[in-house]
Amino acid sequence: MAILKIVKAGAPILKGTAQPVETITKQTKKLLDDMAETMYAAEGVGLAAPQVNVPQQLIVLDGGNGLIELINPEIIETSKEMEIGSEGCLSVPGYYGEVERYSKIKVKSLNRRGKVVYFNPEGFLARIFQHEIDHLTGVLFIEKADNLRLVEE
Fold first, then answer.
1. What is the C-alpha to C-alpha distance for residues 58 and 21, in angstroms, rounded to an integer?
2. Does a structural domain hold residue 6?
3. How far lies 10's CA from each of 13, 22, 60, 103, in Å?
4. Which tens digit of pLDDT belongs to each residue from 115-130?
5. Model-level pTM greater than 0.90?
6. Is 80 exceeded by the pLDDT of residue 153?
7. Which of 34, 57, 76 shows the shortest CA–CA distance to 132?
8. Is 132 considered catalytic here?
9. Environment class of 75 (CB within 10 Å of its CB; exposed 0-12, middle 13-18, buried 19+)
């Protein structure tokens, strides 16, 4: 495994649309492993492949209950209820803002074995899913955030 370089806001790849993964290969699985190692090393809760300069629909995340890997994720259902919460991003270091997101969603994805899996995250975990899925369509949280602020560490 390897720690990958996280690209920062302003990099063109972060504004593009990631491509679906057609075939899950050994390289795909290695990239998922490297992304997880990178996310944990950076003390993040989610990481999308465009953030490590790979234009593919791959996400890793961990809302506190273990690693979740998503290949070609798709939000297929949302709640009517919305929540506002604070967000940051490994590609926009030091900045935080309040973002409105659905409080519950249903996501369809593939796992690393190519099997279709469904997730029904709520609250903070739903927020992570939505934030990372936004990366696959070139949307950064700073475009949706209110009260954007730089927090010195």
1. 8
2. no
3. 9, 28, 22, 29
4. 999 999 999 999 999 9
5. yes
6. no
7. 57
8. yes
9. middle
Where residue 34 falls among pLDDT bands split at 50, 70, 90? very high
- Determine whether the annotation assigns residue 135 to a binding site: yes
Residue 64: CATH number of its domain: 3.90.45.10
Residue type, 67: L
Q: For the chain, how many structural domains are there in total? A: 1
Residue 28, in any domain of the structure: yes
Q: Domain residues for 73? A: 12-150
Q: Is 89 annotated to bind ligand?
A: yes
DSSP summary character for residue 20: P
Annotated active-site residue in 37, 81, 98, 132? 132
Name the token pair of 98.
Answer: 């309040």
Residue 65 marked ligand-binding: no
